[in-house]
Amino acid sequence: MALSNASTLSSKSVHQTHTHSLFSPSLSHQPSSSLVPAKTHVRSPHPITAVHAAEPSKNPVVVDKPLKKSSSPLVPAGSGKWTVESWKTKKALQLPEYPNESDLESVLQTIETFPPIVFAGEARTLEERLAEAAMGNAFLLQGGDCAESFKEFSGNNIRDTFRILLQMSAVLMFGGQMPVIKVGRMAGQFAKPRSDPFEEKNGVKLPSYKGDNINGDAFDEKSRIPDPQRMIRAYCQAAATLNLLRAFATGGYAAMQRVTQWNLDFAEHSEQGDRYQELAHRVDEALGFMAAAGLTVDHPIMTTTEFWTSHECLLLPYEQALTRLDSTSGLHYDCSAHMLWVGERTRQLDGAHVEFLRGIANPLGIKVSNKMDPKELVNLIEILNPNNKPGRITVICRMGAENMRVKLPHLIRAVRQAGQIVTWVCDPMHGNTIKAPCGLKTRPFDAILAEVRAFFDVHEQEGSHPGGVHLEMTGQNVTECIGGSRTVTFDDLGSRYHTHCDPRLNASQSLELSFIIAERLRKRRMGNQRLLF
Predict the structure, then answer these.
(1) In this structure, are strands 204-207 and 198-201 parallel, antiparallel, or unpaired?
(2) Region 487-493: what's the mean pLDDT?
(3) CA distance 445 to 438
(4) Residue 490 and residue 440: Cα distance in Å, rounded?
């Protein structure tokens, strides 16, 4: 599938763009694989040459050029010349302090010689899909682990999370009758910002756990020392994860004919599993009708799917080391993921993270809480997307149901008044974290659902488009969030509480939420259809 150029899309052209099916032809991904660290820290004298994902059958082109390091003077937010190192002139929050600077530099030089994990052309295609969501012609499903870990890295876990995302997308597509853009919090979601740089247990105070690519979660002094070698292991795990995801997406596992086989074993006889099977049989009957009518069901549009990866842009030295100059477009891309987002704790207008992100061409997310001032959001969007390119910016709202109803309308109005085009997405997880009586963090399913409903209600009230959801979830049968139809209680939390950071929806809860969202999408679609007649 040819990827389009990175030229700026007008809102008019987006309205005229053909809406792609959920199971549209897959990107011709060149499989990536886990790589061993290079034995030398000297950069290769020749650029890496590969067949570009956009033109798999044509002449090879140089896709990634080693970057020349340079330094920039201190400049105001969003102004001045951008370089891959200009973020170092800004205040950088949430970054670890490595004890040995030479070890850090050695690791970063090694990572700079590694191949990219993703291709620039894939990121451009994702941006086009997100532009459709901004116009109400598609819906974003973004989900995965709160934080990936080295210990739970396995093919089965990757498969189960991919499978539940396939199930959820089928449900959402069926209800909304629109393409669903599947983006995983996978293949790179390691680092986590912390509200407190230290944690204390039984009178012992140690640095906080910041994610497996930075330090260890064991509560001892040695584990909590930031180790740059963890970045190499994180790169290898991310590359291996994406390699398997590409195989699942293009190798027949995601074929619509398998829609009845995606149910996870432990959810098979649950209420949500039964609802899913009923929907799957309806899809199966539709495929049978198509085949009987002479319409082929073995076309790539039915046997493959598009899937992208994303993570929070937090560990800037690692992100810089994987930033490449794309010779096709002449733009810089952070090739650690297709999409990156800036978090609530690092989105300062004059901060290092915003400075780094303004210079890369990947589609970007902005996490927004009830603390966000409408004018500040407009200014931040202007810095990150000065050309107002549709699909470039996704605003991910995380503020709890009550705040969503009070604060979100003001943000929508400010962005609309500024003429900015963004994709509005609901993160109903982070604003609903509580502490259970046993001391574990949890999230009530009812509170998550209430925030999603508030998100849709506000957009209906404002005449804007609810563009997607952003979830912390897993395909595993965990007990981390309370509630749902297969009621998880406070007493159940300890039985299968596996998260390394924040509580995640399990497969049954995720599927239940997707059915509720699908019903809202269906009602919205029916309402829009009535307006046409």
Answers:
(1) antiparallel
(2) 88
(3) 18
(4) 9
Q: What confidence tens digit (pLDDT) does each residue in 147-177 have? A: 999 999 999 999 999 999 999 999 999 999 9
Q: Residue 76: what pLDDT? A: 58
207 forms beta bridges with: 198
SS3 401: helix
Element (H, E) at 199: strand 198-201
**The two structure tokens encoding residue 366:** 């902005």
User: Mind spelling out the 3-state secondary structure of 439-501?
Assistant: CCEECEHHHHHHHHHHHHHHHHHHCCCEEEEEEEECCCCCCCCEECCCCECHHHCCCCCCCCC
- By C-alpha distance, which of 30, 110, 92 is closest to 352? 92
Within its chain, how far is the Cα of 398 from the centroid? 15
Distance from the Cα of residue 251 to its chain's centroid: 22
Q: Would you say the pTM of this structure is higher than 0.70?
A: yes
> What CA–CA distance (Å, rounded) separates 148 from 155?
13
Query: Are 164 and 248 within 8 A, CB to CB?
Result: no
Which are the contacts of 525, defined by CB distance < 8 A and separation ≥ 6? 176, 177, 178
Q: Look at residues 26, 486, 127, 108 and name the one whose alpha carbon lies nearest to residue 315.
A: 108
Q: For residue 89, which phi and psi values (nearest 5 degrees)?
A: -85, -5
Dihedral angle computed from the Cα positions of residues 242, 246, 252 and 256, in that order, rounded to the nearest 10 degrees: 90
Q: Give residue 461's identity as a one-letter amino acid code.
A: Q
**CB 485, CB 270: distance < 8 Å:** yes
Find the Cα–Cα–Cα–Cα dihedral 125, 528, 424, 131, rounded to 10°.
Answer: 20
Cα–Cα distance for residue pair 389/132, rounded to 1 Å: 12
Q: Say how many residues make up the chain.
A: 533
